[in-house]
Structure formats: structure tokens, C-alpha cells
Amino acid sequence: MRRKRNQLILAIVVSGIVLHVVQIAFVDNFMAIGTASPDLLLILTAFVGMRLGQFSGSLTGFSAGLLQDAGIHFFGLLALSKTWVGFLARYFHAEKILLAEKFYFPLVVFVLSIVHDTIRYIIQTLNSNVAFTTLLWERGVADASYSAVVALLIWWVTPDSWIDFVKFNKRFDR
Amino acid sequence: MIWQFRNVVENFKQALTTYRDYLVFLLLIIASLLLLQTNENPQMTWVRQRVLFVAALLGDAVYDVHGSVNTGETIDRLRRENMELYKKNIALEDAYLENIRLRHLLNFEQRFPLPTVPAKVVLKDNDPYLSTLTLGKGRTDGIRVNQAVITSKGLVGKILSTDSRTSICETLQDQQFRVAGKIQRTRFEGIVFWEGVRNEVGFYGILKNLDVRLGDVVLTSEYSQYFQPNFKIGIVTEVNNEVEGLFKSIRVRTSVDFGTLEEVFVVTDTSKTIPSRRGFESYFEDQPKLP
Predict the structure, then answer these.
(1) With an 8 Å Cβ cutoff, are B35 and A54 in contact?
(2) Which of A6, A28, A81, B237 sits CB 3.0–4.6 Å from A119 for a disulfide?
(3) CATH code, B116-283
């Protein structure tokens, strides 16, 4: 059990770093459509939150957010919004639906992405001429949609055994 | 006790395990907010301004609530402080008045031509048969029996007895007390004695046909056995010829207010041959005129 836990932690950490590198090196440069680009670390956070619980989800979200904050020079902004994502993801956990319906996970990612961008844009539009609703509608929905599409692609290519490996276990989680 | 402590620790551990997810989430949110506060951008400046404003409002509200909760205690404390200040004020006022009085007495002592010893009145005894004052000076200060006791306003009485540190003064307000007096204006002689009214004495021995007017000043006379002549006694307030006998009924208001007497001078020189005794009355303060 302890070994599996360590493997999981290592897997999450490595995935996070790899996804972040891929995000800044490839996704943001080559996959962006206009201003919209998928958020790979958000997809990871949502996945960890759903599969491993609020404790793991919150920690993953906070760490992933900190990594991204360093890039946008606004410390705490994405850490805060991704902590929320990791925490709320567990409320969407439904084992049977998740495995049976390929569209369930992308849908959850879309909803959590909207939550993420809502928190992010509320803070970013403080003391600004840009309206929060405009930003959320024009960029938030686009980002969320793009992230959902990418989440669907990832979900399709990920083997079921990997998905089953990352699974909530009360004894493990506690 | 140890069992209870263990129980508390166990309960705490249990609560931590149960609510771990929420606690970690809360800590991470707090950490994120603290990190946000480190940013120096327009958004966070705006937030900081609002937070400070709200904190100030809440601070005022909390202060008000705290103030209203502690109102009773505050009122009690202020009352106590007020009482202390009131006491201090009284003491200062007393000291101020005493200062004026003592300056006044010092001035009198310096200009009065006879040697005197200032003494504080430590006790007043208004016995109907023997009205006395106990003075805080005695034989060691040079005070002897039958020496005159005066104030800057006039005659008080004479020393009745002394011991080493205190002495007793028989006052004009004593039934046994007698002193030879005279009218300043006409030099008519008489006897001054107390008739039972505070700050008032009778002046006996002036024939009905002699001229005595209201407001005439009464002084000690040369016939006095114990007092130098011309110590001021008081002023005439009533002259009545409608009485039996040869003499007028004359009432004199004493120069000294015996009710407020606190410091006196004992005239230690009993010699009656000092040339400067003439005109002693001029050293005493003027008494208020009659209405």
C-alpha cells in the first residue's frame, strides 16, 4: 500500500512537471487558437481530485497552480483557483459513469475550468476596465471548451489500467 | 487528569482525521491568499485598500461593542478616578488657601512690632463653661501662662496653661473671660465679656450719657492686667440706653471669627513699657464696616 502511494505521488509529480513543460513549450505556442488554449495542469488536477479525493486534489491543484503562477508573475492566483478545482472535483466522482461514459470526464473538466476561470478573472479584473463577464464569456468558455476537448482526447488514449491505477482508496488516502 | 488529557488528545486526533481534507483545503486557500498579497499589481493594491478600509470599519465596530460591553466597568473606573481627582482638588484648594493664609500671617508677623510665636490650633473645645483652644506650641517654644493670643484681625484670648509641646488658650468666647477695653474714638473705658452669642461680646461700664456710636472700634485698654493696650477686640454693633441702671447695653462684634480660626500668634513679650505699643490697632486688619 505504501509502495503504491509512493508510486502515485511520483506519478503525479512527474506528470505535473511534464505537463507543465509541454504546456509552456508546445501547447501555448502551437496549439493555441486565438487566445484559447487548453490547461493541461487543470485536467491533471481534476483527474487527481476526482480519483484520489479532496486532500490529494487540493494539494495537486495548489502545487500545479504555483508552477503556473511563476510564469504569469501573479503568485497565488492560479494556486487559489486550482486548489478550488482539486477540492471540488471529488464532488463529481461517480466511478461507474466515469468509466462507462467517455464524455463524463471532459464535461467535468469543462465545468471545473469555468469555476477555475471565474475565480481567476474575478481577481484579474479587479480595478480594471475589462468586464469580468466579457472576459469569462470570451476567454473562459473558450478555454474550458478547449480543455474539455483535450481532456476527451487524453481520456481516449489513456489505457483503462492506468485509470484504474489512480483510484481512491480509503486506507491509502488516510 | 492524565486520562482526561489523553482523551482530549484522542478526540483532537479523531477530529483531524475526519476533517483533514477540509483543513488542508482551508490551509491551502489561506496560503494562496497570502501569496496573492505579495503581488504589487493594481488588482492587489485595490484589494489591500478595501481590506484596510473594512478592517478599520470592523475595528471601530469591535471597539464600540467592546466599549459598550465594558461600559459599566468604565463608568466605575471613571467614578473612582473622579473621586480621586476630587480629593486631590480639595487638598490642592486647601493647600492654596492655607498658603494664602500663611503668607498673610507671615506678613503680619513681620510687621507686628512685638515678638510673637505662630501656633496652629489643634483642638477647639466649645465647652459652655470653658471655651478653649489647644495650640500646637508649648513651653519649649517660649509660651507662658497669661501671654496674649492674637491673630492679624485682633484679640483671641490668653494662655491658660502650657506644657512642653502644647498650650491651652482661653478665648474671648469663654464665660469666665474678662478684659478691660476702650472705645478707640472716645477712649471711654469698660469691661469686655462674653454673653453667649458666637463672635459677639458685651461691653459693660459705659455711662448712658456718653457718646458711643455704631461702628466704634473697641480696643484693649491700659487697665488690662494681661494684655498690652490697643489690641483690637471688635466693633460696636448695638448700643442700647433703654436698660435699667447707669450703663449702656453695648454689643460688640469680635474682629476674630472664632468659627474659622486655624492659626494664631502668641505674644511672648508681656512687657507693658514698650513705646511702640501705641498705635497697635493699626497693625490689625480693618474689620468690615457695618451695613
Answers:
(1) no
(2) A81
(3) 2.40.10.340
